[in-house]
Every structure is written in structure tokens, then in C-alpha cells.
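In keeping with the milestone schedule agreed at the kick-off meeting, the structural modelling team has produced records for the first pair of proteins. Each record is given below as a sequence line and a C-alpha cell line. The laboratory manager (R.T.) confirmed that both were archived under the project's standard naming scheme.
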Amino acid sequence: MEPIKSVDLTSQYLRLKTEIDEAVAEVIRSGNYINGQAVSDFAAALAAFSGSRFAIPCGNGTDALQLSLMALDLQPGSEVIVPDFTYIAAAEAVALLRLVPVLVDVDPKTFNLAPEKLANALSSKTKAVIPVHLFGQSCDMAPILKIARENNLYVIEDNAQSIGTEYVFPDGSRRQTGTMGLIGAFSFFPTKNLGCFGDGGAMTTDSEELAERLRKLTVHGQSKKYVHEKVGVNSRLDTLQAAILKVKLAHLQSFTEARRRVAAAYDQGLQSRVDILELPYRHPASTHVFNQYVIKVKNDRRDDLQKYLTSKGVPATVYYPLPMHRQPALCGIFKTGSDLTESEKLCRSVLALPIHTEMSEEQINYIIKQIIDYE
């Protein structure tokens, strides 16, 4: 059996080698490495895939969040609600713009922003909310959007981990994550479901005005060369990365199906260990694309199980060991919008099992057996 990896980017590349090599060679032949044809081609393909009117590529997922906030022209001191249990990027982008991250607890089943906690965190200074679609599953967007409409809040979706996930509204209509709020922020970090060979990101929106504003902000706020209407940043998706992403986007559905097969095998194989594990919950209004397969380990045994699996050659990972309100970088910056009990509990109990597109049945069965044999 091949060694088990958290993600196997090399094997995925080898499977798509002919297509990717040709796409890269075409860029090299063109000599156009910044804002080349592949960038606009990928932007159009991403917009079509997601169902958005516009997709604006940028340098990475964190930039996508920061640029989205910059486009709103919020005044310093304005409050932006973010979940307490997630990666730091959302709260960091808020803080960098001298806005106030208001930390709100999450649903213990889905790990996503709890709508009822959001409603109780509002103040006269609240201007926006950033729902983070964590691990491959959508936030419960219907109540979040309702609260936003009733309180005139901007909604920026952090869709770094859930590209291709669909949310079903109570009326039966369906929308992809990243297309339900005002702006969707995407990351194409190599380990994401759609990953490039470096850093990359994008924003989606249905607003033509916002799309134009976001495009300008990615290139120093300029409308034409050397004419800068706004203070912007330098955050462009490289043409080489765009070419790779366009190839991989065409395979994204098969990538998702492969991840779901791994998740289904775990679901079935680990049923006998519900004495110590809580398997991933599926929200009835959301599909799941499994950027991560995250279990909860009961009875304070998470660290012991992780150590055991590591000794057996299984790279199980903790996402995330610290909630946002315990991050040193945010000390003195954030505001607490609710009790944060569930986030605290999750940081002590979550464990991500290996899941990626290239996992063999032998590897999956080996991981399941090790967990079954754990005492």
C-alpha cells in the first residue's frame, strides 16, 4: 500500500498531466504571464459554473475577503460578524481594514455560523456578516439572509472550502455557495477542492457595479493605466495558475464524487465506533463536497486518537486547535457577539481524517481498521 497522505496532489497531477502540461505550455508560448487570456477564460468559466454574473480573479482567498470588504467602503469601527470556529482569514481581513470582528458561536453539528447567535449579536454598528461555509457544507443561508435583509447587512460568503456545494431554500430553489450573498470569496490554495499550483483566489457577484469596483481594486485601484481612482492592492491571479484552474474546473464534479465516495466509505465503516466518534452531520438543506471529513471524538480522547493514528501512518489533522477569541493576533481587537461555548468544545474534539481524490480503497479500509482497532 502506498503511504497515506492528507492530500495527494502529485497523483492528481499525473492523472491530468497531458491537459495541464499543454495549458501551461500555451501560456509560456504566449509570453503573457499577467492578465493573459487564460485569466479571462477562467473567470468566465467560474462564473458559468457557479451561476454568478461575474467572477473576478485575485491573488488568493484572503485577498478575496479583504477586497470584498474594501469594495463596501465601510467606515473604521464598523462591526462585521464572523464565526468563532474557523480559520483566521475572515477575522484578519476585517481587522486589517480597521473594522471590528464580532465573534459569534457556531452550530455544533454543522460547525457553521449559528443563525440564532447572529441575530443576538447585532448592534447599531453592525454593517456586514461573513458566513464561512466550513469543510464543504453550506451555512444555513435562508435565516442568515433574512436577518441580513431585515437589518441592512452586507453578506460576504467565505467559500474557500465549499466550491460546488448547493443550498436548497425552503421554496425548493437551489443556489451554489458563494452566490447567495452580495459577494462570494473563493480560495484556490492547492489543497482546496479546486486548487492551483500556488496561491489563487476569486470573487463572485451579480452586481455589475461591484464587479467593476473589485476589478479596479485588484490592480491598485486603477481604471486605466496610471489612473488610480481608489487606493487598491496588487492582487492578480497569475496566467499560469488560471490556465491550470480552467483545466481542473472541468474535472471538479468528478473530484467531488471521489471525495463523496471516500466519505460514504468512512460513514459505513465507522458506524461501529460511534461509542467514541460523532460522524459528520449533513444539513438537510445542503449538499456536501467534503473538503475535509471531520469527526468529533468523545470523552476528551481526541489527542490520544490522533497520536495513535499517527503511529499507524494515518495523518489525522486538527482543524482548528484554537477558536478566534483565543488567537493572540486578535487580542484586544475583537468583540464577543455571543457565548462561544460550542467553538471551545469543537477545538477540543474535532479531528479530520484523510480525504482526497486519489485515495485507494485499500487506504480507506486501512484507516477504518485502525480506528476500529483503537482501544
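The second protein of the pair:
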Amino acid sequence: MNNTTMNKAVILARGLGTRMRKEDNNATMSKEQAAIADMGIKAMIPIDRPFLDYVMHNLADAGYKHICLVIGPEHDKVREYYGQTLSPTRITIDFAIQEKPLGTADAVAAAEKFSDGDPILVINSDNYYPMESLVGLRELTEPGLAGFDRKSMLAGNIPAERVTKFAVIKTDEHNYMTQIIEKPDEQTLAQLPEPVLLSMNCWRFGPEIFTACKNISPSPRGELELPDAVQYTIDTLKKRYKTVTVKAPVLDLSQRSDIDSVVTTLKGSHVQL
């Protein structure tokens, strides 16, 4: 395994798209976008071309050459487009099947064969991450995560009431993560020093993450959660996660009300895969 150069990225695209399926009469979208939203496949929402194309273009620009899409067995539309219709020249695209939606840790576990012992970037399929996060993690020589400055996130397309619910990262004096606080309350947020860093599920993992994914128990909601797997690597495998501070917002496409702002930001952008 090469510990210093990371050129593999795993995109978690297995989600059920529950929030995207939810009706929203105030959302602005085309008939084609509405049809894909009804299917819940957020990554395939068209903005001239599928949203995921823009995500992967950024990955290619950041130096990632091999991409794995974690999808469900029913995601024929994704498999057909990225496996047959598209002919990328800058990246290779593989698929890993998560048979059942058992949680984010289970989704990461599906990509173990693709990783083949190499470090991997893991990101969401419904987020368009700023370049500094992708490059910053790629240039690390150890496990890490992107910590997104809360004030910068408030300048993006995500409403403030949603931003306040995102998980918060606590770090030590050397910028290593010490804790992730899910759904922090106002008092917790008020006590944190600036910059307050948010986790948007943008990670650099070594192969130990797969050991963790296999050894954790389901959360109270019955899912195998990625934060629990990360905590297992810290507590049991004695790993540390370097935090890369990012002062740029993440573009989010998780529900219908996000579509218009994503179109405004990305429409007409050059995409080369």
C-alpha cells in the first residue's frame, strides 16, 4: 500500500433519497428534474448533465484517477449511464453494490475490494465539495477529514437552520479530531472556539476502516453508522484523524428546494471526465 499518494475516491450513492422524494410545491425544477427526484436518485438530477458528473469532474481536477460508486442493486439508471453511455478519459469508474441500505458504514464496507489496501477518499453523492477539501485530504499522509468552517458554510446554498444541525468537529492543538458531536445544541455551539468546524462526510481512510465497519454494532436506529466505525478505529485501532480546515461552502443537493440554487451555481460549467 502507498500511504502517501491517494488517487482513489469512493462516492456513497446508495441512499434512498427520502428527502428528495418528498413533495415540495415551492421548489423550482423542470419536469425531467422532478421525474428523477421522484426516483430519489439525487446524484442523477440533471443540470444540463447529471449532478454527479460535476462532482467527478472536481475529483479528476484534484488528482483522483479511480472512482467507485457505491449503489444499490436497483440503480440500473446509474449503472447504465456510468458503465455504458459515458466514456471517461480522465478517470475510471467502478461499482460496488450495497445490497441493502444498512447504513453508511455498511456502504463503505462494500468498497473494500476497490480499495485493495490503498487509502481512499469517501464522500457523499449529493454534495459538491470545494477543491481545497479534495486536494487537502489527498495531500495528507495519514487518515483525516475535512472540517468546514461554519461561517463559510452559511454563505453557501444550505439554509442556516439546516447548517446548525450538522455535526461539529472538536480538535486538539495539533488539529487532530478528538470528537464529532452529532446535532449539537445551541449551548454546545456557543462554547466552541472559532472557527467552528462542521463534518460533511468528507474523509480520507486507510484500510483499517474496513475492519471497523465489520466490527461495530447497529446504532439505536438500526444502522451501521460511519461515525461509529471511525470511533472504533480511534478507540480500538489507535488511529488519529488530521483535520483539514476548509473555508469554502459545500454545495448541497439533498432535497427539492436545493435544485434551483444548484442549477444557478453549476449550469454552464465545463465538465470533462
